[in-house]
Write a structure and sequence with these properties.
Blueprint: E1 2-28, E2 36-54, E3 57-72, E4 78-92, E5 101-117, E6 120-146, E7 151-177, E8 185-203, E9 206-221, E10 229-242, E11 251-253, E12 256-267, E13 273-301, E14 305-334, E15 342-360, E16 363-378, E17 385-399, E18 407-422, E19 427-456, H1 459-463, E20 468-472, H2 479-485, H3 490-497, E21 509-513
Antiparallel strand pairs: 1-6, 2-3, 3-4, 5-6, 7-13, 8-9, 9-10, 11-13, 12-13, 14-19, 15-16, 16-17, 18-19, 20-21
Length: 514
């Protein structure tokens, strides 16, 4: 007897090792920069530069970068101060852990800047570094039996199998010319680049991405006594990244993130500083899955042999749902007595993070916060620009049908848009629009045929089975169960009893003949 087997990726197990790190550094203001009077805001970014494998260890290198916008002590003008702090972290894995794919992630949990004196600041940050290892187990499943003496019961099963699991990048480089009503640039003071709308989907042997990147700049225009200017715009991006083996009909989870952004100014064709040059890297975390229907041998027997089946319980994954939703958050911020009164809103930006995911009957609920910073022009000429920070809560219920207790999910939460508007002299309305992408899989446990031993029955054993007998169905039985028990075949039972289905009901009278 030959067991025909097929290799199937039954389950992808991910091991995550997460470490929290702190950074506490003093930084002197460079000589070319003016003294610090008041910090307005600070943007920051955590970037993974690379991973290096050693004996049972994985070394992760990266850096924390920041850009501080502040008012100087000399004339109350705007200045910026940028810097970068490198980090390195090692992760150890146990013997026997054979990862088919290793990734690293980092995220800033908290970032604080404090003025020590006009020429020195202190930066404290709490950030996480994660090393994620995927073990994609390839198992052999019995799909057929080659033996004329064996009767086989099969069932088509659907397995969700991972087909692509990796990272790639897409480079952005765009030139944007200032509108005609904006003056020429003398000095670029501050800039920010962020993903706004984003879309990703699979193509045959590739990934298609599309969206918009928001760009904000503050600059000093040419000429004495000119008022500080700001400009906000968005640039579209679109492209295809190669991903061999994926197909359009597969389902996927592809978070996008924008890293290593650089904004500079350059002259236009007339030699005037009017062109914003924006560069960055969009990082894709690509996971693609296929649903494959495979006939699996469930049971077998022989009318003239003993068949000893050895089974093994294994876990496998089945897709439950993939969904993309938009959550909304709202917060009304009241300017405090010690804060500068707003005259005009300039810019609002933020980061979304998940606080809690509640798995419930019929679905799940994603609760989170958007940490928002709003930059505005104040009514105080001595402090012409100010900012405030606030947290905008959001909550999004997600319906999930056919979810089992042991289910797993992939979740991606990102900010699509933040709007801030004045609704009074000291109140500002902040609205956040959050994109939520979720993929849910059930983890099922099932016994699969592992091996089979056959031994011919003796004449005495065969003669113990009656040639014909009447039988009354006992309950949850099938013709397969009855035929297997009495060493006959389902076809014989159907022909003798004029039955067209494989199921029987309690009390049905069945005539059994070998």
């Amino acid at each position: 007897m030959e067991l025909v087997k097929k290799s199937v990726h039954l389950n992808c197990v991910q091991k995550t090792v997460k470490k929290m790190k702190t950074l506490d550094e003093d930084m002197n203001v460079p000589e070319l920069k003016k003294d610090i009077n008041k910090i307005i805001c600070c943007t920051h970014e955590a970037v993974i530069e690379g991973m290096k494998a050693a004996e049972k260890k994985e070394s992760v290198k990266g850096y924390i970068s920041f850009d501080i916008l502040y008012l100087n002590s000399e004339n109350g003008g705007l200045e910026h101060l940028e810097g970068k702090f490198p980090f390195e972290e090692s992760f150890e894995f146990s013997d026997g852990e054979d990862f088919t794919n290793l990734k690293a992630k980092t995220a800033i949990e908290d970032f604080a800047v404090k003025i020590i004196n006009s020429r020195k600041i202190n930066i404290k940050t709490l950030f996480s570094v994660e090393c994620l290892g995927d073990e994609t187990g390839e198992d052999e499943i019995v799909v057929d039996v080659k033996d004329d003496n064996v009767l086989v019961q099969k069932e088509n099963m659907v397995f969700s199998q991972i087909k692509a699991n990796g990272e790639d990048t897409f480079r952005i480089k765009e030139d944007i010319e200032l509108p005609k009503n904006k003056p020429n640039v003398q000095n670029l003071i501050f800039s920010d680049m962020r993903l706004k709308s984003r879309e990703s989907r699979l193509m045959d042997d590739g990934v298609y991405i599309k969206g918009d990147i928001g760009i904000f700049v503050i600059y000093q225009p040419e000429g004495e006594g000119e008022v500080t200017q700001w400009y906000e715009t968005a640039i579209p991006f679109e492209g295809k990244i190669e991903a061999r083996g994926v197909r359009e009909e597969m389902f996927s989870m592809i978070p996008l993130s924008l890293e290593e952004t650089v904004v500079t100014m350059k002259p236009d064709y007339d030699g005037e500083e009017r062109v914003i040059c924006a560069e960055g890297i969009i990082r894709l975390d690509i996971r693609a899955f296929s649903e494959e229907e495979t006939p699996v041998v469930w049971d077998m027997y022989s009318t003239g042999h003993h068949v000893d089946i050895k089974s093994c319980e294994k876990n496998y994954q089945q897709l439950v749902m993939k969904n993309s939703l938009k959550a909304r958050g709202y917060h009304k911020y009241k300017i405090g007595e010690t804060e500068e009164k707003p005259l005009q809103i300039c810019y609002a930006y933020g980061e979304a993070h998940t606080e809690q995911v509640k798995m419930e009957n019929g679905g799940m609920t994603v609760d989170g916060l958007v940490d928002v910073t709003v930059i505005y022009v104040s009514v105080n000429d001595e402090n012409p620009m100010a900012s405030f920070t606030c947290q905008v809560p959001f909550s999004q219920p997600i319906a999930i049908e056919e979810r089992v207790k042991d289910s797993e999910y992939l979740l991606n939460v990102c900010v699509d848009q933040i709007n801030a508007s004045m609704i009074g002299g000291d109140e500002i309305e902040v609205r956040a629009f959050v994109g939520i992408e979720v993929l849910v899989m059930n983890v099922m446990a099932q016994k699969f045929v592992e091996s089979v031993e056959m031994k011919p029955m003796t004449s005495k054993e065969l003669s113990a089975f009656p040639g014909m007998i009447g039988y009354i169905a006992q309950g949850e039985e099938t013709l397969w169960d009855i035929a297997k028990r009495y060493k006959t075949t389902v076809e014989k039972l159907k022909n003798i009893n004029k039955i067209t289905t494989d199921t029987v009901r309690r009390g049905d009278k069945i005539l059994i003949a070998r």
